[in-house]
């Protein structure tokens, strides 16, 4: 794990829930996720590149665990064949 991901990363489901509940951050994350879902004929790698597509999967996995709706699961289903990031899930299970 990189220094930046450790420094800026969200530590667990509770922090992810707080992020989603934030009146600016949560709204922006949901907005950009909705836009991503509306793209047609693109893969996550097309949109973000290989490394960042993996980061998007990790992010969607994290927020899917914290969300009360299925917005983030829709991204996992559409762009990642319904398979969440197992490393992220293992980390979340530690908290």
Detailed description of the structure:
With 95 residues, the chain is mainly alpha-helical. It has one domain: Alpha Horseshoe (Serine Threonine Protein Phosphatase 5, Tetratricopeptide repeat), CATH 1.25.40.380. 73% of the residues lie in helices and 0% in strands. The protein has seven helices and no strands. It has helices spanning 3-8, 13-21, 25-38, 44-48, 50-66, 71-79, 86-94. α2 (13-21) packs across α3 (25-38). It is globular. The model has no long low-confidence stretch (mean pLDDT 94).
Give unreliable regions as ranges.
none
Mean pLDDT score: 94
Query: Portion of residues in helices?
Result: over 70%
- Integer tally of domains: 1
Shape: globular
CATH superfamily placement:
Protein of unknown function DUF1810
**Total number of helices:** 7
| Total beta-strand segments | 0
Q: Based on the coordinates given, report the CATH architecture.
A: Alpha Horseshoe
Structural class: mainly alpha
Q: What CATH first level would be assigned?
A: Mainly Alpha
């Amino acid at each position: 794990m990189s220094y930046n991901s450790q420094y800026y990363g969200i530590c667990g489901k509770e922090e992810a829930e707080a992020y989603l509940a934030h009146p600016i951050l949560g709204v922006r994350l949901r907005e950009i996720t909705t836009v991503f879902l509306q793209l047609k004929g693109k893969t996550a790698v097309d949109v973000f590149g290989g490394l960042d597509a993996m980061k998007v999967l990790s992010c969607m996995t994290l927020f899917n665990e914290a969300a009360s709706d299925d917005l983030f699961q829709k991204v996992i289903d559409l762009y990642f064949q319904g398979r969440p990031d197992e490393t992220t899930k293992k980390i979340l299970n530690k908290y």
